[in-house]
Structures are given as C-alpha cells and as structure tokens.
Amino acid sequence: MKAEAIKLDGASAGSVDLDDAIFGLEPRADILHRVVRWQRARTQQGTHSTLGRSEVSYSTKKIYRQKGTGGARHGSKGAPIFRHGGTYKGPTPRSHEHDLTKKFRKLGLKHALSAKVKAGELVVLDSIETEGKTSVLAKQVANLGWKRALVIDAAAINEGFAQAARNIANLDVLPSMGANVYDILRSDTLVLTKAAVEALEARLK
Question: Would you indicate the residue range of the signal peptide (predicted)?
Fold first, then answer.
C-alpha cells in the first residue's frame, strides 16, 4: 500500500510503499492483548511481600493453657486469626514473567502497526533532522496536531531531534529496535521515519 510522507514543517515529501504483510493486516484484539500482558508482566517488579506466621515478631511461648479457659485452643500469638498476626498465604516476592514465543511477539507488532494504519493514526516522516531547538520542534509538533505521539527512527536516533524532544510533554522517541506493542497502542499518533519503515520491514519479514 502507498502512504504519503511529510516533512516536519508539514510539507509533502512524496510517498512510501508499506508492506501489506506488516501494515495491512486486520488487527486482532486477542493477539494484541496477549502481547501487551506479556510485556507488562515483564516490567512488574513482583516485590510485594507480607510476613507469615513464622516471620512476625512474637514469642513462641504458648499464650495460655490448653484447657480450662472456656475459649478456643491457641498456641501462638502470631496466628493469622489474631490482630498483627502473620498473613495466611500472603504475597511473596516472585517474577510475574511468562513465556511468549518470538513468532507470536513479532505477529503482535505487525497487528499493532496495522491497527494504527487502519485507525488513520500513522504518519510517515521523510526524516527527523532538526537544529536541536526544543522551542522550534514544539511549534512544529503543535502545528502538525500531534498530542500524544510516539516517534520511531532508524537503529540510531537523530541526536538533534532526541535533544529537542527531551522536554516536550507527550512526545516519545524510540529507535526501531525499541518499537513495541504497548507504546505503539498507547500513543495517539505513531510517527515513523522512512528509515524506520525500512528497518521495521526488515525486522518483521
């Protein structure tokens, strides 16, 4: 399929061919959901922890005699039934990460790109060469109407653009190898340079 390319000032920069096998799929929510869950699970710290019965700071002495009290039998103040006692089967530090095949992750990225094309939220830039001024880039972004944009460049990000974009809210920049389903879907506008299109097509073929 053909897509129109523009420059940062909004001028036309010709057109670019997009591979239908990558940008022309019918997006499937189930595939995107699985990949996003896998991605978010990998970033979850899993440091949640509670103290169990054997870890709370209490004496291990039997709290009162077994018989004759008229109450239930208890042997430890740290039992979960008591206030400040240990937590029964509480969370412990662990990894939330689970496996997802490379083939499926690649498929998820294709569907994420196709979803942006279908929604009309994909913009192709000729290049992101800029003088490195935040004020200039912010004005260009405002004129283009990008509110929450993700810009993906080639393997190496243009240093001037990265420096200028650093202090602009809701403008994220990633190299082509950093392209991922979660960041693509959460952006309102996906901006790919021509070099990024070539790099992604080479990566996903």
Answer: none
